[in-house]
Amino acid sequence: MTDLRLTARGLARGFSPHTGVRGIDLEVAPGEIHALVGLNGAGKTTLMRLLLGMLRPDSGTARIDGHDVRTAGAATWARVGHLVDGPLCYADLDTRTNLRIAAALRGVPRGRREEAVRAGITAFGLERYAGVRARVLSQGNRRRLGLAAALLHDPSVVVLDEPTDALDPRGVIRLREILLRRAGAGAGVLVSSHHLDEVARIADRVTVLHRGGVIGSLDPEGADIERAFFRLVHADEERHGDREDA
C-alpha cells in the first residue's frame, strides 16, 4: 500500500539459530509514531537495518512510501531521516560544519542549507557547541548532533534506534517535541526504546519484539505498560520453553 510510510512483510534475517529476526510484519502510517520495544537482542536494530536497506533480508520485503528498499531511488531516500548504530559525524569537524555536510547529503537546496543548519542547532540546543569539534563533544551532545543531522531536512520517514540514549532530561523533551511535530506534519516515525515510560508519552502504537519475532502490542495509554510488557515476554519464554522441552 502506497499510503504507508514504512512496510515490512515477512522480513527475516538470521545470523545464528538464536539471533536475527523472523517473519516480521510491520506498518507505519503517515502521522504515526510507532515504537518498538524489547529486551537486548530482541531484534529491534536488525529490523531497522532491514527497513533502511542496510541489510539484505533472507526473505520478505521492506518498503518506504511503497518503494522496495532494494530498488528505491535517490528521491525516496531524500525523504528519510535515520539514526541507527550511533551518530555519524566527522570527528575533526565542528558541529556547524557537520550539519552543513548533512544538509548537502540529504538534498537540502543550497539556498536553504544555512537556514536548515541554524534550525537544527537551535532545535537541539547546540548553540554553545556550534564551533566545537565533534571529537570533544560529550556523548550526549554527539547524540544531539546526530539527531539534528538526521532531522534537519524535515524527513517524511523517520527511523531512530534508541534515540534518547545519553540524552539528559532536557534533550529528551526536545526530541519528544520534535518527533510529535514531525508526525503532526504527516511523517511516519519508527523508534526503538527500552524506556517504556517515554514510549508511552509519544507513541500511537507499541510493538513488542522478543527472540526476533513480534509477540504482541502494548496500549501506550495503559495503566501499567511495564507490567504488560513483561507479561508478554514471560508468556513467550514459557512457549519457547515448552517447545524446547518437547
Automatic annotation (TrEMBL):
Pfam families: ABC_tran. SUPFAM superfamilies: P-loop containing nucleoside triphosphate hydrolases. One of its GO terms (molecular function) is ATP binding. PROSITE patterns: ABC_TRANSPORTER_1, ABC_TRANSPORTER_2. Keywords: ATP-binding, Glycosyltransferase, Nucleotide-binding, Transferase, Transport. Residues 6-236 form the ABC transporter domain. InterPro entries: AAA+_ATPase, ABC_transporter-like_ATP-bd, ABC_transporter-like_CS, P-loop_NTPase. Belongs to the ABC transporter superfamily. This is ABC transporter ATP-binding protein. It comes from Streptomyces hazeniae.
